[in-house]
Specification:
Low-confidence stretches: none
Strand order of the largest sheet: 1-2
Shape: elongated
Largest sheet: 2 strands, antiparallel
Order of helices and strands: HHHEE
Structural class: mainly alpha
Distance between the termini: 56 Å
Strand content: 5-15%
Length: 86
């Protein structure tokens, strides 16, 4: 049994047809990656830094802001963790 091979012209036409179908007919577009985890890490780092500096007003502000969007801060013995509010 031999595997089928596409010529370059057929391949190019296939890609062009696929792109027209996906983008123009279905209207699908590639979305940028979600960077929610990276943003949450930055906020948790800010929280940890404020806690280390004993800036408890800032700690409370960050905790309240995150709770407002459904994220709960968990103070662990040696770290800070988070979870989505249930």
């Amino acid at each position: 049994m031999h595997s089928a091979q596409l010529g370059r012209d057929v391949y190019d036409k296939l890609i062009q047809t696929f792109n027209v179908f996906i983008k123009e007919i279905l209207g699908l577009i590639e979305e940028k990656g979600d960077n929610q985890d990276e943003l949450l890490k930055v906020i948790i780092d800010l929280y940890s830094n404020a806690k280390s500096a004993r800036d408890y007003q800032k700690v409370d502000e960050i905790r309240a802001a995150l709770k407002g969007v459904g994220v709960i801060i968990k103070d662990m013995k040696n770290s800070v963790d988070w979870a989505y509010e249930e």
